[in-house]
Amino acid sequence: MAFNPAVWCLFWYRLGRWIYRPHKVPILWLPAKIIHLFGATFIEAFLQMRLNVQAQIGAGMLIAHCGGITLHPDVVIGEHCDLAHHVTLGTRGVGSLGVPRLGNNVYVGTNAVLIGPIVVGDGARIAANSLVTRDVPPGATVMGVPAVIVKRRPMASAAQVQEECLIDA
Predict the structure, then answer these.
(1) Is the CATH number of domain 51-168 2.160.10.10?
(2) Do the beta carbons of residue 128 and residue 84 sit within 8 Å?
(3) Taking the CB of residue 92, how many other CB atoms lie within 10 A of it?
(4) Which whole-number Å values give the CA distances from 106 to 14, 35, 56, 141, in the listed order?
(5) Catalytic residue, candidates 65, 72, 80, 86
(6) What residues contact 75, with CB distance under 8 A and at least 6 apart?
């Protein structure tokens, strides 16, 4: 796990979020911001991953393979999401407004592109090489260019999930 470059990238993102938050004495944080900038540039150039510190990424993010991940600064990603390599989350073009918002437990496959002001519901699955330009309902699996729903799963409520966990314990 420690040798996975994607883990380094996520650590650098979380460190950057902490460094760039408002502090009482901003001048003391200038050296940390400079160091973070050089590290982020290294990660982008050599690992080909750009996790902007302005993007909001929930806890439990998994990036299994390094490379090719680009996130717009305004992207919001829920908890326990899984991004494969060569994923892009961004706007429809220069000057366009709106970026994707991913719910919790979302899987995004290799080479998937999610663009525009879309919402991907909790538990959704985006197949590899898909172009998503419309909202994806919770529990749905989408694929294709443009992506269409190929499967729907019933989503369990939080109470049902908690009850199942208690039964398994």
Answers:
(1) yes
(2) yes
(3) 13
(4) 20, 32, 15, 10
(5) 65
(6) 52, 55, 56, 89, 90, 99, 100, 101, 102
- The CA angle 154-156-162, to the nearest 5 degrees, is 165
Residue 71's closest CA among 83, 62, 59?
83
C-alpha separations of 36 from 2, 6, 70, 75, 120 in Å = 19, 16, 18, 20, 31
Q: Indicate if 72 belongs to the active site.
A: no
Comparing 3-7, 119-123, 126-130, 148-152, the range with the smallest average pLDDT is: 3-7
pLDDT tens digits for 142-166? Answer: 999 898 889 887 765 544 544 554 5
Provide the token pair at 42.
């290294």
Q: Note the maximum CA span of the chain.
A: 53
| Digit-coded pLDDT (tens) for 33-53 | 899 899 988 888 888 888 888
Q: Cis omega before residue 117 (within 30°)?
A: no
pTM: 0.80
The full set of domain ranges for the chain reads 51-168
Pairing between β-strand 140-143 and β-strand 148-152 as defined by DSSP bridges: antiparallel
